[in-house]
Specification:
Helix content is 33%, strand content 24%. It is an alpha/beta fold. It has 2 domains: 174 residues, Flavin prenyltransferase-like (Rossmann fold), CATH 3.40.50; 202 residues, CoaB-like (Rossmann fold, 3-Layer(aba) Sandwich), CATH 3.40.50. The strands form 7 sheets. An 8-stranded mixed β-sheet has the order 13-12-9-14-19-20-22-23, sandwiched between helices. A 6-stranded parallel β-sheet has the order 3-2-1-4-5-6, sandwiched between helices. Helix 12 links the parallel strand 19 and strand 20. Helix 3 crosses helix 5. 42% of the residues are buried.
Amino acid sequence: MLLNRRIIVGVCGGIASYKAIELVSHLQQAGAVVDVILTEHAEDFIRPLTFATMSHRPVYTDLWEASGRAAEMHIALGESAELLALVPATANTIAKLAHGVTDNMLTAVALATKAPLLVAPAMYHNMYEHPATQANLATLSARGAFIVGPVVGRLASGAIGIGRLPETAVLLGAVRMVLGRNGDLAGRHVVVTAGGTHEPIDPVRYIGNHSSGKMGYALAEEARDRGARVTLISGPVALQPPYGIELRAVQTALHMREAVHEAIVDADVLVMSAAVADYRPEAPKAQKIKKGETQQGSDGGAGLALKLVQNPDILGELALAEQRGNGRIPRRLVRVGFAAETNDIMQNAQAKLAAKQLSMLVANDVSRSDSGFGTDTNKVFIFHADAPMEDLPVMSKADVAATIWDRIVSLLETRK
């Protein structure tokens, strides 16, 4: 997605300027062509050589250097850029851009480019919250700039407050979202489910599975990077919420069913990648079950008997609702399911595809060490309602997500 994309990173003079090094490194590793511009005071915090080493390109600083080449380059840089990202953006530079001041290389490029502007402020909390700074940010936002707000934390002064630059993962997500805003899913609303569900036994125990949510989060991020409005319905996971995505956290299968029904009302696509528990305890205990409350097992030891009831089949219910003409189910909703199997993958996947009347079903063998729960790679088969099955090689979950959305985009094209 970032391959050969031309990005300018403008670094302003603040203590958070060192964090821009990691951003530039990640962008370059992803294949982007990254040009870095430092303001005069940014050089007081970090040297141009550091950024040149990370970007593998010259770094621009002084608009008024003697040769005149920098003054000439600010036009060329502005015209070739696909994105100008200010990381970090100080109150001073934000004010200059809001009022059209062009007294250095960075502000000159900002006025010379038609590329979208991404602003990530970082400063002392009183400076950020000052009415002047807020008014300047509002001015830039009204002109179309994308503002990635700071987070609360310990500031360079030692105070705790809002003003810290977000983590690099957040900044990368914002960059990808802005670059992909006109992608092949622009104007679409997609709903993705992820993770497992926790079905309570008592206040401290639950029935669950090993789902990490990595596949679902990769699917949500890929859809965002293609311009979609994404609703991510997630069971309990140890993953950070992706930038620019509406996250709805749920615990149980019943909670997930409710959230799905609410989210799909205006959706174009539903991708059910969550590993929803098939069963739940019929009567969860209100208090923690003590060892003394257990029963004697068949081996003579203590045991605990649980009566389980079946959880709803969310995709199966949607298929039935569509058959009955339920007006809450969008007629053109593309429904995609997942099947985590340990045996008889082909037969089980084909049966689920037909029974749930899906457009597509993605199946994998979770008993493999390179596929399924907790891994960063996946080996999947894609079953289509109207096309032959696809046997994909082992790929990263990000690449699997991209392939799945390629297929879904083709389906959406046929439903116009």
